[in-house]
Design goal:
Elements lengths: L8 H11 L4 H18 L3 H5 L2 H5 L4 E10 L5 E12 L5 E7 L5 H17 L6 E6 L8 H15 L8 E4 L6 H15 L19 H19 L8 E4 L4 H12 L3 E7 L2 E4 L6 H13 L7 H4 L4 E4 L10 E3 L9 H9 L4 E3 L8 H10 L2 E3 L1 H4 L2 H15 L5 H23 L13 H20 L3
Parallel strand pairs: 3-4, 3-5, 6-7, 6-10, 10-11, 11-12
Antiparallel strand pairs: 1-2, 2-4, 7-8, 8-9
The structure holds NADPH dihydro-nicotinamide-adenine-dinucleotide phosphate (NDP).
């Protein structure tokens, strides 16, 4: 095929939309990646000839299944479960499981697609996948959650395995749910293997896994600031979410001398003018995770704070913005108000929390913008280390794992700058488009492996 015969970006996206009707999150995620990849491969004939991008944008397989369970009142409930195995060119499928009522096939396909690039960026041998269900764990008893998880795993076990596909947690899936699913896998298969990560420390879990995503995102932020000759000390930060990623990101910002002004949940956000210190963050962790409470309750314990119902925190002036809740939580207008209020860095702890308009606002303003596929890769990187420990039946120390996490995040940052700085600009100080850098670096490793395999 001559280079001039290549399908262009608009035609490529038209094809994606046609093949995935109504799957707007999946189309959005491909759009964001494909625009950078088209530029990168325009003079690289083999990627066109072998239709590499077209193939990465088509999951290897999507498994969908019925999950029946019985609630505490003996009602039979029926949910839908999925596992999307996007690409295993460089290692076994790897990616979290999400339990949330807004989970759809489109959401999981977008997450599995993103995960493929993220996992590649870590430098580890991990393919990309994602799974979940529209089950809502909120308001359910422990026994209801247990019965649901067991039923979910009763089907999922056929599709996963320590060399095949290794799921982890995500929204609505924490240590409790992983333990229930691992217990069921072990019962069905009679195998004690590293089939899930994020396990409890007593049964094959790794130290530092819980905090890795949030800490990693802030390490990435620290590396971006360092490259710009700045640091976190004395900066104000607006953080969204109050789950695993948000609370650990907030904790690390405080460790580095920053001041965290907000945390949120799906009902609104809390603004604490005195800042969330380590004790307050620990209260939030306890309240949201163990007591399964609401962030609104914070103001009863710390009355100088104010709760803003049904609102997102992006109008609060800050130096650093760290979205750690969910997809599309920063829209174009939110991005404009962050920039207008003087925000200098946005780092995504969540997956795709900024919509396409928002990303364009940050890029045009040329502020530092760290996309989730790079910035929140610390969690999956630590999961990769949990897999290594399980395979070798060893346990690494906290110090060793903290240091490895730090180095992994530095490696991801460096891979982004390798491809994110325009030709002719200084590699050390020139403006870095981290989105482009992450997309290209993540793509190249997977694409080169696919080229080596031929047409499979
Ligand atoms: P958690 O379930 O621990 O916390 C999620 C937080 O986001 C909660 O505060 C939740 O509020 C809030 N939230 C969820 N949905 C919405 C919504 N529609 N609107 C507003 N707030 C919402 O999840 P995690 O912290 O693990 O995950 C957060 C993000 O980080 C997700 O995008 C996830 O994919 C991503 N991520 C997580 C990794 C991990 O290791 N855990 C790894 C990489 C990325 P509420 O309590 O009200 O539901």
């Amino acid at each position: 095929m001559a280079v001039s015969d290549h399908v262009g970006f608009p035609e490529f996206m038209a094809g994606v939309e046609k093949r995935n009707p109504g799957q707007k999150e999946f189309v959005q995620a491909i759009h964001e990646v494909a625009q950078d990849i088209f530029e990168f491969i325009q003079d690289k004939e083999e990627y066109h000839e072998y239709q590499i991008l077209r193939r990465i944008a088509e999951p290897d397989r999507v498994v969908s299944f019925r999950v029946c369970w019985e609630d505490d009142d003996n009602n039979i409930r029926v949910q839908r479960g999925w596992r999307v195995q996007n690409n295993n060119a460089i290692g076994p499928y790897k990616g979290g499981i999400r339990f949330h009522p807004n989970v759809t096939e489109s959401v999981l396909k977008f997450l599995a697609f993103e995960q493929t690039f993220k996992n590649s960026l870590t430098g580890l041998s991990l393919g990309g996948g994602k799974g979940g269900s529209n089950f809502n764990p909120k308001g359910k008893s422990d026994h209801e959650v247990m019965r649901f998880c067991q039923s979910f795993m009763t089907e999922l076990f056929r599709h996963v395995g320590d060399d095949i596909d290794v799921p982890a947690g995500d929204i609505g899936v924490g240590g409790r749910e992983i333990a229930y699913m691992f217990g069921q896998y072990k019962r069905i298969t009679n195998k004690f293997s590293g089939v899930l990560t994020g396990k409890g420390l007593e049964f094959g879990g790794s130290l530092v896994r819980t905090e890795a995503t949030g800490y990693g995102a802030v390490y990435f932020l620290q590396d971006m600031l360092k490259r710009a000759g700045d640091d976190v000390e004395g900066k104000t930060a607006v953080v969204s979410g109050s789950g695993n990623v948000a609370t650990h990101a907030a904790e690390k910002i405080v460790h580095l001398g920053g001041k965290v002004l907000t945390l949120s949940d799906s009902q609104g956000f809390v603004f604490d003018p005195d800042g969330f210190d380590l004790e307050k963050i620990s209260w939030v962790k306890e309240h949201k995770t163990r007591r399964r409470g609401r962030i609104a309750d914070y103001v009863e314990v710390y009355p100088s704070a104010k709760f803003h119902a049904e609102a997102r925190p992006w109008g609060v002036p800050c130096d650093l913005a760290v979205p750690c809740a969910t997809q599309n939580e920063i829209r174009g207008e939110d991005a404009k108000s962050l920039v207008a209020n003087g925000c200098i860095v946005v780092v995504e702890g969540a997956n795709m929390p900024t919509d396409l308009d928002g990303v364009a606002v940050f890029k045009n303003a040329r502020i530092l913008f760290g996309p989730g596929k790079a910035a929140n890769a610390g969690g999956v990187a630590l999961s990769g280390l949990e897999m290594s420990q399980n395979a070798a039946r060893v346990v690494w120390s906290e110090e060793e794992l903290q240091e490895r996490l730090r180095q992994l995040m530095l490696g991801i940052h460096d891979r982004c700058t390798q491809y994110g700085v325009s030709a002719g600009a200084s590699k050390d100080t020139g403006y870095c488009d981290y989105v482009k850098g992450a997309n290209i670096a993540g793509f190249k490793k997977v694409a080169d492996a696919m080229l080596a395999y031929g047409v499979v």
